[in-house]
User: Fold this.
Amino acid sequence: MTGTNLRRWAWIHKWSSLVCTVFMLLLCLTGLPLIFHHEIGHLLGTEIEAPEMPADTLHISMDRVMEIAIAQHPDKVGMFASQEEDDDRVWYVTLSDTPTSETGMKQVAVDARTGDVLGQPQLDNGFMYIMFSLHVNLFAGLAGMLFLGFMGMLLIVAIISGIVLYGPFMKKLEFGTVRADKSTRLKWLDLHNLLGIVTLAWLLVVGATGVINTWADLVIKYWQMDQMAEMVAPYKGQPPLEKLGSLQKAVDAAIALEPEMKMGFIAFPGTTFSSPHHYGVFMRGTEPLTSRLFKPVLVDASTGEVTDSRTLPWYATALLISQPLHFGDYGGRPMQIMWAILDILSIIVLGSGLYLWIVRRKTSEARLAKLIQAHQT
Assistant:
């Protein structure tokens, strides 16, 4: 590679890194507790604990679950009902002023077997809420998500340009060399390069999936205009329902259609994932990968009959796969620990890169000051 090309790649690496580094440091720092969000929830006492009962304990009907949840907030209406991927003992019912309102939301955790209210998780405060909001959108909604997506793309550019520069740089050194007997700056430069290569694949995966995740709102809106619009087209122009039919009947219809799948979540009529005339019952697979993929089953909210169901398109599937991969949710505790270690190493890479730029700038300014002084004398 010619000297001109090397200088060009060095310029790309320098400025793509500098622009995104502060935000990437923020994402790594806020992402670290999110890897262990369940464990931290237990530690803080915010995680809902379901009492132990025999595995064959019967569950109450979904209609009763909703009655219990709404009784806690009679002025609210149902938006969603969901369960944890590996725990069907608790229903988390989300309520709001209207099916489309994003303010004033409340959540009620209802024991699916006894109907006991196990708690009311806070949706808009607490340590994990702050970490999650900073990590996802900087408290700035869609604009914040897209901005972080752009920073993620700059990170990918910085990684690729770093790979291009690493080969010529390491021609003079053995792999893994850290020149401990040299200046502090050279030691940090070697460490920066070494850890950068060690975390290369992980940073690319996390950076790419992070960028995809920032498009979540846009992907969902496109799915609504594309697939959902086709699924509810026969109901276009019909007046809104005055009274909803049995939710349990809708759930039973969805389970009968997909008996090999598990319940994921339920969207009530008028919400993002349904229509004004349907319950959106989203089923999930039972394998580690397929459990992250949903299949929507639209059920007429008045008759309880399935009206449409189809596999999610590729762009929605890509989004659903990228979300747990981004936080290391696929492989249990070992993968969480590995993700945390790589996250910490990435913080060192980003921090050392910022340090090297500051030191080099100070050195250049000092040299310039000496030249000016020598010229003046």
